[in-house]
């Protein structure tokens, strides 16, 4: 009887230790998963790949490309990322211009099809520069790009970007300025003229 009791206690202790070890392993795995960085993929549907909201409306692109080049006279290196949206009639686009040396966002342009007075639509052109240009007191522009890999990645923040021309033709006066929700992009293929031609235009 005594041996039976001792054996039962031994089995109980071993079972408890095994369960505790199992729980600890589960806890460690949970922590590891929670600490693992999760990278969300861009949302893609029949309208294209989601880039951001413009004045509260989803804007998706059907094509994206990039080019990095150095100006022949000024020697300034610039990276341009272009997002194009194919429409039934015409196109829309968003372009991000980055300094190729500092990798900072310097300029943003957009061409958007918006309703015009008298019917139809017009290609409204918007532009916002980091310094100078047509802007509002609340206008803001910021962002960076990473060109260390074969494909480009980066971000952009654009607030209160003013229309450049024909503001009086807009059917909706609120479209005289546009604001983007934060833009985050990755995996954008680009060509580098200096690498293609093996020169730095010295």
How would you describe what is shown here?
- The strands form two sheets. A ten-stranded mixed β-sheet has the order 9-10-13-4-5-6-7-8-11-12.
- The chain has 202 residues and is of the alpha+beta class.
- It has two domains: 1-38; 44-197, no CATH class.
- The chain has helices at 2-35, 193-197, and strands at residues 44-45, 48-54, 57-61, 63-70, 77-86, 91-99, 105-115, 121-129, 140-146, 151-159, 161-163, 177-178, 183-192.
SS summary, helix count: 2
Q: In percent terms, what proportion of residues is strand?
A: over 45%
Helix-strand makeup class: alpha+beta
Outline, from the CA principal axes? Answer: globular
Number of domains: 2
Helix-strand pattern: HEEEEEEEEEEEEEH
Rounded mean pLDDT score: 82
- Rg calculated over all Cα atoms: 27 Å
- Count of extended strands: 13
The main pleated sheet reads as:
10 strands, mixed
Summarize the structure.
The protein is an alpha+beta fold and 202 residues long. It has helices spanning 2-35, 193-197; strands spanning 44-45, 48-54, 57-61, 63-70, 77-86, 91-99, 105-115, 121-129, 140-146, 151-159, 161-163, 177-178, 183-192.
Topology:
Blueprint: H1 2-35, E1 44-45, E2 48-54, E3 57-61, E4 63-70, E5 77-86, E6 91-99, E7 105-115, E8 121-129, E9 140-146, E10 151-159, E11 161-163, E12 177-178, E13 183-192, H2 193-197
Parallel strand pairs: 4-13
Antiparallel strand pairs: 1-2, 2-3, 4-5, 5-6, 6-7, 7-8, 8-11, 9-10, 10-13, 11-12
Core attributes:
202 residues; alpha+beta; 2 domains; 10-stranded mixed sheet; 3-stranded antiparallel sheet; 2 helices; 46% strand; globular; disordered N terminus
